C-alpha cells in the first residue's frame, strides 16, 4: 500500500484501500459544493461577514476566491512574498534562503524554469477547472516517454545499464505473454478457463507480446532500432532482445505501473510558463488589497467576537479580528502559533507527520537529450538517490532548457537534504552521468535546488498521517477526523485534510468543503 501511495498517487492508493476493505466505509459524506454567488449572502443574510485566511497557498487562495463570490470580506495573510505555497516555480530572479541559512539565486535564462513543487495535473482534478475559470493556459505534460531510460542495479548483465522504456516494455511484455501463453497451452489454467476463453487469451497475448506464430517472443520492432529505417531499401536494424531470465531478474519493469495510477495516467497537463501561474491568477482575481504578503502569523485565538490573528509584517506587529478564520498553515507548524486550541486538536495536528522531497534543476545550454538521445519530455527512472531525471516539456528544439536532475522523496531525498547546493549538484551530476553519459556533465549554465524539509513556512513536502500506512489518502483516524470539524470559529483546510494529499486537487476540494461549511453556518445563524 505504501508503494502505491508513493508512486501511484492518492486515487490509486485510496482505491486500493477501498478494494481491500481498509478504507472507511462509514465516513461522513463530503458536503456538496456549489459555487457561491452574490445573492447567496448579500440581501439574504443581514450584516457583513468577514473571514481571515491564514496562508496564501492553493487552499487559502481558493477559499478566499470562493468566499468573495458571495460578498464575504476576506483577508489573506501569507508569510511568503509570493502566492502558491508549495506550488513554487523557480525562474531567473527567484531567491531563497533555506533553513540551513544558505541563499540561492536562480539565474535561469528568460522564459526557462522548473516547478520545485507541484508540476502536473491529471484530467480528473478540479485544478483544471480553476485553470479554465481563471483563464490560465495549459499544455500537455509527458508522464510517460518510450525514449527515456530505466537504469537499475541488479545481479544481472543489465545492472547499471540504461535501457529505453520501449525496449524494457517490449521485452517484459513479450516474455510475460510467452510464459502465460505457454502455461495456458499446457493446460495450467484448465480449471479456470474454457476452451473459448483460452483461445481469446492466446489471441490477446500474441498481440500484446508481439509473439511469433509458434507463441515465442523473439524481439520486436517495438524495442527500437540500432539504425533507423529510412528511404528505399533501408529497412533499419532492429535492436536484439535481452534474455528472458535477465529481463525477469533485473526488474527493469518495476516502474511500468506508475502511469497506470488513476492520478498519473496520461494525458496529464500543466500551465504554460509554470504551475505558479494559477496562483498569480487567483491573486489577481482576489485583489492584492485583500492579500497581505510577508505577513507571518504568530497567534490565532478564538475570542468572543470571532477569531483574532496576530502577525508580523514589515517589521511591525499587527492584529486582525474576523468572524471566522480558515487556517491553511501546514499542520505540523500550527502548534507553534500562540493559540487557545484544545489539547486534543493540538494532538491531532501532531499526527500529520512531515515528509521529505526535493528537486534540483540544471539549465543546459544545449538540448543534448533531444539531439543525441531523441528524448522530448518525460523522465528517466533509476534506483539511485536522484530517483528520476525529468526532461523539459517546453521550448522543444530550442538551444537550451532546464532538466530536473532529481526529484526524490523519503530516504533518497534525505541523502540530498543536508548537503549544500553545490554538493547536491555534484551528486546529481555524478549519478545522472551514469545514466545519460559524459554529456550530462557538460554545457551546464546554472542550477537551483529546493528541499522541502529545509524550506521556511513548509518544512515538509506533504503530510503523512500517523496510522495511514503512508498513503496519499486521508486516513479515517480520530486525529484526521478531528481536524475536519471547526474549533469554534477556526476551520482547518489544506491537502492534508483530503484524499488527494500531495495534490492541489486535495487543497482545492478541502477549501471548497470549508467554504460550504462556513456559508451554511452563516446562513443558519442569521
Ligand atoms: C515536491 C512536490 C511535488 C508536488 N507535485 C504535485 C503535482 O505534480 N501536482 C499537484 O497537483 N500537486 C503537487 N504537489 C502538492 C501541492 O503543492 C500541494 O497539494 C498544495 O500546495 C497544498 O496546498 P495548501 O494550501 O494545502 O498548502 P501550502 O501550499 O503548503 O500552503 C500553505 C501556505 O501557508 C503559508 N504559511 C505557512 N506558515 C505561515 C505563517 N506562520 N503565516 C502565514 N502564512 C504561513 C505558506 O507560506 C503557504 O503559502 C506537490 C508538492 C510537492 C512538495
N-to-C span? 46 Å
Number of strands: 27
Q: Globular, elongated, flat, extended or rod-shaped: what is the shape?
A: globular
In what order do the strands lie side by side in the largest sheet? 14-2-1-18-27
Strand proportion, as a percent range, falls in: 15-25%
Question: Would you kindly provide a written description of the structure presented here, covering whatever features stand out?
Answer:
This protein has 526 residues and is of the alpha/beta class. The chain has three domains: 31-83 and 276-351 and 477-525, FAD/NAD(P)-binding domain; 90-148 and 265-274 and 355-454, Alpha-Beta Complex (Polyamine Oxidase, Chain A, domain 2); 165-253, de novo design (two linked rop proteins) (Up-down Bundle), CATH 1.20.1440. Helix content is 30%, strand content 22%. It is built from 15 helices and 27 strands. The protein has a five-stranded parallel β-sheet, with helices on one face. It has a four-stranded mixed β-sheet with strand order 10-9-22-23. A four-stranded mixed β-sheet has the order 17-16-15-19, with no helix packed on it. Helix 1 packs antiparallel against helix 2 (10-19), helix 3 (58-70) packs parallel to helix 8 and helix 3 packs parallel to helix 15 (504-525). The longest helix is centred in the C-terminal third of the chain and has 22 residues, at 504-525. It is globular. The two termini are 46 Å apart. It binds flavin-adenine dinucleotide. The site of flavin-adenine dinucleotide has 41 residues, from helix 3, strand 2, strand 15 and helix 15.
